[in-house]
Prior knowledge:
It comes from Corynebacterium lujinxingii. It is a single chain. By secondary structure, this protein is an alpha+beta fold. It is built from 12 helices and 5 strands. Helix 5 (163-176) packs across helix 6 and helix 10 (347-354) packs across helix 11. Residues 32, 36, 39, 42, 229-231, 234-235, 238, 240-241, 244, 246-247 line the site of iron/sulfur cluster (SF4). Iron/sulfur cluster is lined by residues 32, 36, 39, 42, 229-231, 234-235, 238, 240-241, 244, 246-247.
Amino acid sequence: MGKVVEATAAKTEPVAHADRDHALLSASSAHRWLNCTPAPYLEAKHPDTTSEAAEEGTAAHELAEHKLRQLLDMPTTRPESEWHVEEMDDYTDQYADHVMAELTRARDTDPAAFLSIEERLDFSHIVPDGFGTGDALILGGDTLTIVDLKYGKGVEVSAVGNPQMRLYALGALATYGMIYDIEKVRMVIFQPRIGNVSVDEITADELTTWAEDVVRPAAEKAIAGEGDLKAGEWCRFCRHAAQCPALAAEMFAHVPTSAEHVPAAPDPDTLTDDQIATIVTHAGELKKWLTKVESYALAQATEGHNYPGLKLVEGRSVRKYTDEADVARTVEAAGEDPYKPREVLGITAMTKHLGKKRFEDLLGDYVHKPEGKPALVPESDKRPALELATPENVFQPIEKGA
Ligand code: SF4
């Protein structure tokens, strides 16, 4: 880990991350309500469920906070969680090192620069009841730096134009803007599991203009549940997604349908290239949306709700032993081996079993990555396009005299 740099400001007692309040217009959902102002109102009707990924993220943030507190010589006790595996230790070390490097960077220009961790940031002057928690804030010279740890690995998060980071910055400006002459805001997303460090900078004036021109009017509508539904990539985690007519219309827009909005499922041979390209581009989100609607409808039906033309039936099930120990005894008594052949653990399970470093030391030479099967993806995908074998690039002209 990096060298210890003394903090000159930080809150004193950690608050359990899972116990923190959530505002209706939260910073983490700002991308959604800034684009679709009725969303928070509609989402409030659905239970706020937690996921394993969210629990893992909370555990990572608690461990990361502990590590920063250690580096800053602040009172702390290592939190305990079943999620705290060696991999999380590595990643939270990387995060703590990155924050300390940002502090050192700030101190290069201003020796009085200081770091505040896990500070509650209140931006309710712009968004009703708006607040959030800044993982790490650094004030030095004319610059405010905010570092946010993202522990997910499913979606790469960009700091560029990120409304959550900007709202946190507005909260920090409200607290420190009177005392310090902050001209520049630097926002850093640190997402260690996919090696993503994304940085964006904005002037304090631009940030304030964005708050007044974009955020305040949207927040006023959102808190009143007003405005038009607008579907887009921000629907991904919306709790109203399964019932939302705007999202359904958006999904059907990519699928050939009959006049009654029933997917027509034509033979792929009859589709145009443009239709096929549109469907393939949206296939992932379409499948996810279909699954969401199916799960929602099943949950409602098991509560007694009736849908026209649908009925609840017993699903298929597979046969099971009533008692595995008895089965093993009986088969052994008959002179047969009842057990599966032993199998070597897969790479993920073995890494978990041995720890990342030991896995690398012991098995690094035994791991190879075979070529992946071709996949058809949108042009915006970061992977380079495959070069297919053609007679032109397979058969090279034979040079004279060769
Ligand atoms: S699913 Fe999308 S369009 Fe519908 S309420 Fe949620 S954010 Fe708005």
